[in-house]
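pipeline stage [seq->struct] | target=D-inositol 3-phosphate glycosyltransferase | organism=Streptomyces resistomycificus | residues=506
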Amino acid sequence: MPVPHGARRTGATRVTLLTEGTYPHSHGGVSVWCDQLVQGMPDVDFDVVAVTGTGREPVVWDLPPHVSRVLSVPMWGAPPEGRAPRGRARNQLTGAYEQFLTALLDPRAEDGFAPALYAMARAAADGTLSPFLRADRAITVLTALWNRPGLAVRESGPTLHDALTATALLEHALRPLAAPPPESGVAHAVSGGVAVLPGLAALQQHGVPLLLTEHGVYLRERYLGYRTAPYRWPVKAVVLGFFRLLAQETYRKAALITPGNRYNRLWEEEGGADPESIRTVYNGVDPAAFPAAGPEPEAPTLSWAGRVDPIKDLETLIRAFALVRHRHPDARLRLFGGTPRGGEAYRERCEALAAELGHADAVTFEGRVDDIKDAYAAGNVVMLSSISEGFPFTLIEAMSCGRATVSTDVGGVREAVGDTGLVVPPRDPAAMAAAALELLADPGRRRAMGEAARLRVIEQFTLRQTIDTFRSIYRELPTHKGKLAVMPAPVETPAPAVSGFGSLAL
């Protein structure tokens, strides 16, 4: 539901932030980034269309007066209001939905995805899409389609239960289409995926330019998540087909794409983005807000900060710490950060792993900390163990605090660290432990790395640079009917290759 806030100002640049599971209803890196933009641009009027869980999530950020409105779009709460279409309208929507599903399942029909999506967007605006997808006819369309000869999904023996599951997942994923799309200014999606849907509708219906910023690669993270999801292959084929084609349509239609690192850029180009429409814009921090941390703890300590989530792969970090403790029996691992609702089972699994390895006494989950600088100061070495990242705030914040880091080689980590920290393969406890031990054994090297890391942040990753870049983009985009011509970012460190979108390989 909408939450009114400040008054609209005549003549001010207007931006609608499109978010999913982040600002302004939760904390975390992307939420911090959104708050930085909003707080740093009092001359810009912001609205927020936030895809949420149930719609009952409170606003947890202090919103300044130039945030005019926050509209929560719940994916898992009560369905959008409306009634099922009848007669000719039902037949038209049935045809569009069949075209949509065919595009998801048949590579020869993918050109039908966009027209079908926009037809369904019009139905969502009329209040008929969600009731249609919750009725029997939608199930019938899918069961008839994926049993057609020649479709690969047919070979996996889809069942009625699969059809019910896949249709329900699509109904929830498409709910953001029912949100009123922005009619002017710039629509700025701060992730790919379902948050973009109102932006695509705004572009198609009102010509509002779409700006896309990907911190992590949304599609890659869906691939990772669905590897272990409790669904049979027919369901995964439908849902991942939707996310893949949605990514491609977003990349094609965005007036400008601003990935947070060059690794994301490779995925975007592979997904169909015009290289001339991509401009890398790094996250930034205020070095004055993250000063040098000061003396290290006396006992050898590894610290970590972030959201307790499987994508952060704390299990690998705990296994690496167990190896470190063989060398340093007095070592500690301190984990700072909240556990999102629904993530309690993962935290319990991590705690159980620490106990199973015999290190429950030295591994502490300390929850949210009032001042995040304390989390970085708590360690001799700051760790990052994620299996997917964009350009992680916790890493550049720790660097600004002058701490040496050990990080996994994902996303923009190498671009952030350069030669001021150690980078190891993801999901490799032995490599992570070896790097941590290397730094714990050499205080002089830790100190030199920390000083170099802070200098690197000051020279390349300041908040002022980020805000000034986006203010310029916000002012420039509405004046361009087509895509902005931009120069590619200078290359310092080669980014790893990415797999093609035509498969689920990573």
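stage status: PASS
auto-comment: Confidence is low (pLDDT under 50) at residues 485-506. The chain is about 40% helix and 10% strand.
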